[in-house]
Each structure stands twice: as C-alpha cells, then as structure tokens.
Amino acid sequence: MTHLEKVTVNGGGRSHWVASGPGGTHVEWDAEVTEDVPAERMSWRSTQESSVPNEATVRWVPAPGGRGTEVHVELSYEPPAGAAGAAVAKLFGEEPNQQLRDDLRRFKQLLETGEIARSDSTIQGVRTRASMSRPAQPAGAGQEAGR
C-alpha cells in the first residue's frame, strides 16, 4: 500500500496509522478492530479522537469454481477539509478509493506472479508511486532500509 507510511500495532486491537496526503502532507489516525473472524472477515473503525473518521471491512470469499479467494473491501471515510479536501486529494491521486483500487490491483499481481510488473506501457492507475514498488522478497533481502 504505497500511501501508507507506517502502521503501529498497539495491542488490544488498536493501531496507529500514518498515510501520505496531497502535496506531501501526512494524515494520522488511531483505529480499533471491531470484528475479526479468521479467514472470513475483519472490520475496524477509527477512534473518536481521530482526525480522519473512517471504517472498513475486508472479506475473503471463495472464488467461483474453486479458483482461489476474492478480496472484498468496503471503506467509508470523512476527508479532512470536507468536499474541498476530497477534490484536492482526487486531483493528486491521493483519494482513498483510488488508492485502494490501485493497491488491490498490485496485491493481486503480487500474489499471482510474485512481483509487480512495471513497464512504459503499464496502466498504473490514476497516479501511483511506481518508485516505491519492488519485487516480493523476504524482509531485509536486498531492500533499502525504510522502504
């Protein structure tokens, strides 16, 4: 997920998230897990004191014909600065729904091929940080620190 800079798990189903925003800004919030059914679904929501109210559910569903697993994501959020903030985020390719579509596309490619292919003709979504993409490797195997 190229827009996520850091996620800190604090225990007890709580975590702290830091994401990049439009024009080099950063957005932070705290979240708590509200439901966790292994191999089926996981839900979470931001805590009341968070600056970006949001909630999401990820569901893992068997694909038709026994052809793997489908990942379904439902996300709702209130952008900082309201509708104007959402418009700016969309303009810069930082709107969460755009980012989620791009992230899921890269995740699918990574699972199916073991890497995220890039070429001059690759459709990379609305706006992606291609420089942050790298082949799948075990942590620390030839990767730069902090990437």
C-alpha geometry = globular
* Helix content class: 10-25%
Mean pLDDT: 77
Per the CATH scheme, the topology name is Alpha-D-Glucose-1,6-Bisphosphate, Chain A, domain 4
CATH class: Alpha Beta
In the predicted model, the low-confidence regions spanning at least 5 consecutive residues are 125-135, 141-147
Please name the CATH architecture.
Answer: 2-Layer Sandwich
- Helix count, DSSP H or I runs of 4 or more residues: 2
Between the first and last Cα atoms, what is the distance in angstroms? 12 Å
Count structural domains. 1
- H/E topology pattern: EEEEEEHH
| Largest sheet data | 6 strands, antiparallel
The strand line-up of the biggest sheet is 1-2-3-4-5-6
Commentary on this structure:
With 147 residues, the chain is an alpha+beta fold. The protein has a single domain, classed as START domain (Alpha-D-Glucose-1,6-Bisphosphate, Chain A, domain 4, 2-Layer Sandwich), CATH 3.30.530. Helix content is 19%, strand content 35%. It has a 6-stranded antiparallel beta sheet with strand order 1-2-3-4-5-6, covered by helices on one side. The longest helix has 18 residues, at 96-113. The protein starts with a strand and ends in a 34-residue tail after the last helix. Residues 125-135 and 141-147 have low confidence and may be disordered.
